[in-house]
Write the structure tokens for this entry.
Amino acid sequence: MLFTAAWTLHPPLGSSLETPVVENRHGQKVTGGVGMEKPQVHSVNPVRVTKGAGFMGRLPCCEKAHTNRGAWTKEEDDRLIHYIRVHGQGSWRSLPKAAGLLRCGKSCRLRWLNYLRPDLKRGNFSEDEDQLIIKLHALLGNKWSLIAGRLPGRSDNEIKNYWNTRIKRKLVSQGIDPQTHRPLNETSNKNSSPAKAAPTEMDFRNAPTVPKSISFTTPPPDFKYSVFEVKAKSESIEGGQQF
DNA sequence: AATCAGAGCAACCGCAATGAT
DNA sequence: AATCATTGCGGTTGCTCTGAT
């Protein structure tokens, strides 16, 4: 079973298994979560929490005064992992109460999908993954969940962060506009969307396949190697929808 | 050793989409 | 058909870490 196998290979943070030792982005060995950048982050940041309703300048999505916020503790992770292992995902609204967590459902869902899921790959992105992300972005725009759907083991948040912090700069350094995927000197005074842009070297809408060198452990049921078949849930790419 | 700036990323928000009644 | 509840998505924030000065 994939769940079990992945769990064994990559025990999620907070599991009762041995604390994993991972490499941070500087190649140093650290203890912490799977691919965790910030070891020992399992403490609620007092600043973030005590800011309360003023946190980040917006009202909280969950108005409950007793809802925890900020970084997740190891105990909270344990509770969430255990609950989902027993009951499965879903019913995020009622999950916190059922699992004994003082968190809102959205927070639980985000924590699970972006960090605790046993099938998350974590770790550095390969060059092949880089190229695939770039190509999918050229096709889909900022549809991170769709892009993540084609990169098993990667979360949309992870890909989004990776795009914003690395790939964007990489493309700019190559003289490519990260939004239009066209040469910078060609797009500096235009606002053309990727979907409407004329074909370029980065345009792969007619490309038959994605790189085969990428090893996917378990593609999702609807995974299509032909990117031409990629479709948004309710929008047609051929229709030239804006992204 | 202390300070500063930039990079990285977890976690938050509002809003849109979807499902239930 | 209308309304309400829930879920999912994309954009944004700000804390922590690291390297440079």
